[in-house]
Amino acid sequence: MKIAILGAGAMGSLFGGLLAEADQHVTLLDINDAHLHAIAMHGLRLETDGGDRHVRNLHATRPGGATDVPDLLIVFTKAMHTRAALASVHHLLGPATHVLTLQNGLGNVEALASVVQRERIFVGVTTWPADLAGPGHVRSHGTGVIRLMSADGERPPMLARVVDVLSAAGLNCHADENVWGAVWEKVAFNAALNPLCTVLNQPVDALGAVEDGLTLALTIVDEVLAVARASGIAVDAAKVNDNVRHAIVAHRGHKPSMLQDVLAGRPTEIESINGAVVATARRHGVPVPHTETLMQLVRLVQANAMHKQAP
């Protein structure tokens, strides 16, 4: 399969490397020139539980430099960059190209549907861990899964093909009729931990310093899942709560991407996570005071961080 990956950060590079190792035709698309140059010179260094190696049978380029129309475009850009990123690869979207979003937050399918027919969109979530250790170097330890489904709820032949290709690369992929439940469960997890760590300027395990940290995180999870239920989506609160408890204990030293963005003076994904939850909550009349307060605090932290970075 010809696969293009839009957004070759940690997750995009991990997926691209593993798919290339499984003999798929992979092109990484990104605007990080140092990363692209390192891959061109040395291949993609992939460090996983399976070993430390360089993957050379893939191509990495800026979006405008790609010419092959892919069978599958996997989108890993941050939500606020989706529309601009899609515009940069409009020439690659052929009449049979399918697009898979594995991005965080809400609103990604709607952004894709502005340029791609909904029946050619797949939506999913993944729990695979990945960190960009340097230009051309991605590190991933542990395991994960992918849950996906067609955005229109149908099961076209391409769905089974994508599941098979991703699973053959060791990515443990499953078609899931309740994929929107999975999306909202991940949103609830992120809406609790990412902003709390960002406001505190602390890693995830710092939330375990006092009992209030876990209590507040679980309160936010409850608010977000109440919005999901009001939207007619089935979610598993016990599973999300267990994931939050596990993260606070096990993810020692881990700084969520939202905190990393603030520290680098970049815009965060707060609008597609907490912001999207608050907007949906208002439409359904569901109170989400803790989720909204965290949104407002992160907006303040983000604005101040970006002001400091400005020349």
TrEMBL record:
It is an enzyme of class 1 (oxidoreductase). InterPro entries: 6-PGluconate_DH-like_C_sf (IPR008927), 6PGD_dom2 (IPR013328), ApbA (IPR003710), Ketopantoate_reductase (IPR050838), KPA_reductase (IPR013752), KPR_N (IPR013332), NAD(P)-bd_dom_sf (IPR036291). Keywords: NADP, Oxidoreductase, Pantothenate biosynthesis. It catalyses: (R)-pantoate + NADP(+) = 2-dehydropantoate + NADPH + H(+). Residues 3-148 form the Ketopantoate reductase N-terminal domain. Residues 178-301 form the Ketopantoate reductase C-terminal domain. It holds the Pfam family ApbA. Pathway: Cofactor biosynthesis; (R)-pantothenate biosynthesis; (R)-pantoate from 3-methyl-2-oxobutanoate: step 2/2. Its EC number is 1.1.1.169. Catalyzes the NADPH-dependent reduction of ketopantoate into pantoic acid. NCBIfam families: apbA_panE. Belongs to the ketopantoate reductase family. This is 2-dehydropantoate 2-reductase. It comes from Ralstonia soli. The lineage of its organism: Bacteria, Pseudomonadati, Pseudomonadota, Betaproteobacteria, Burkholderiales.
